[in-house]
Write a structure and sequence with these properties.
Number of domains: 1
Helix content: 25-40%
Strand order of the largest sheet: 5-4-1-8-9-10-11-12-13
Low-confidence stretches: none
CATH topology: UDP-N-acetylmuramoyl-L-alanine:D-glutamate ligase
Structural class: alpha/beta
Shape: globular
Number of strands: 13
Distance between the termini: 29 Å
Strand content: 15-25%
Mean pLDDT: 91
Number of helices: 10
Largest sheet: 9 strands, mixed
Amino acid sequence: MITEPHALVIGEALTDIILSPAGNREYPGGSPMNVAVGLARLGRPTTLLTWIGQDARGDAIKAHLAESGVALAPGSDGAPHTSTAQATLDEHGAASYVFDLSWQVPAAGIGSAPIVLHAGSLAGVVEPGDRAVAQLFEAKLSGATLTYDPNVRPQIMGTPELVRERIEHLVGLADVVKSSDEDLAWLYPGVAPELSARRWLDTGLALMVVTRGGEGAFALVPGGERVDERPRPAQVVDTVGAGDSFMGGMIDALWRLDLLGRERREALYGLDGGAARQVLQRAGQVAAVTVSRAGANPPWARELAG
């Protein structure tokens, strides 16, 4: 277990089964796992607390984590089988998903307190693990910065009414939240995504970011200032893991700006539009590399300029 200042990511790791016109393939995946891999590849000490099986797909996930430098938290391989997400890609590379998911948080301890705790997607809403995720957010883990991405998956979450309260609870506990405009539109039908994002910001966030696909992203900071950033040019192969890479890039940018952890909480909540733009630029740089190649394959630090 990592003891130096590190990120703790909690959530699902699974096998992405990709079905596309170009052929079928399998990759280790899962939104939180992708964030952990992205952070570790950017040189950030990272631990993943997850729920995988001791089977061939679980072994592939372990190998993927080890190759990327992610530490696997004790107890994370206690699941009866490794979950899967079958992604069908259309001619534009956009993905739709079907899940076979088992999720709970291992009983083993989390080790030393991190400076940033990230959770998202299915881990925050799928029983029984969702309750443990909420409890870890509520505990604040010795002042760790809390980051969250709802990353909704309607195919397994059901309807907005079933998950909205749980998502809003985590948003209300978080310091930094990232969501896509599509996710906000799904959660709040008929409401402009910016309005929903501003409502979330007003729950007490230091930073609210909304990604907009090919239109780029915008950030909202306390006081209501909006900062827009266009997407980086990229030859899109597919969009699998793009949002997760963006999230990892956001956390990395906040780390670069020395805004994570208890001692930097006041500075984080004083983040201005200029710093928010740096976060968007770094996140966009990371995501642009990911969409340029197949699967959730975020870049290593050496692949990025600056």
